[in-house]
What does this fold into?
Amino acid sequence: MKIGIMGGTFDPIHIGHLLLGEFAYEDFGLDEIWFLPNGNPPHKQTKEMEDALMHRVEMIRLAIKDVPYFKLCLHEAKETSHSYTYKTMRELNAIYPENEFYFILGADSLFAIEHWKYFREIFPTCIILAAMRDDKDAEDMRMQIHYLTQEYDARIELLRAPLLEISSTTIRKRAARGLRVYYMVPDAVADYIKKQHLYITKEKKSNGFRDN
Ligand code: ATP
Ligand code: MG
It folds into this structure.
């Protein structure tokens, strides 16, 4: 099978992530898209971080529940050590030798990839599908794809998806200010954020802030 891997922190998952998955599925004839939330780094195994991971995972579940080809992959979430893409991709290839993996990412990740641990080892494990995001234009993308291809034998394709200026950071900030996050995340995720009082500082929570 051809599997798209959509890795990220997903704090929370939003429609930018989902659309990348949808367009990758459609344009590259993939069989499934696996949403792969990263786990907690070893120095952050606090109760708070454990809860945050549980919420991140639950929100992915809610976001993808009606889409049969969207799956949740807990490979990194289950680990107590740091998640590294090269390691995860190597392991996924070993566990599922019959699969061909496509790693889906946004422009910021494509431009940061040389800072990822043992990044050279990622390239043989998957074809990268890279989508534009915010400040990087088509020419920037073309040049970066060309550069990585030449320099490291990377296999990278441009993933064409609607350009959305949405990030989890924006959503967390909106929720922290008591603003609605509907339309940026699936309704079930917005409901969850509201119900669980996510992203609100402790003082605000105890004041009953946004408790409606
Ligand atoms: P944060 O603001 O917390 O960094 P994020 O929105 O960037 O959150 P991540 O979980 O960090 O989300 O991203 C996972 C992957 O999804 C990354 O490869 C990122 O580039 C990509 N991505 C996220 N949002 C978009 C978007 N709006 N358009 C294109 N790619 C995106
Ligand atoms: Mg990010």
Observations:
- The beta strands are 2-8, 32-37, 70-72, 100-106, 127-131, 156-159.
- The longest helix spans residues 47-64.
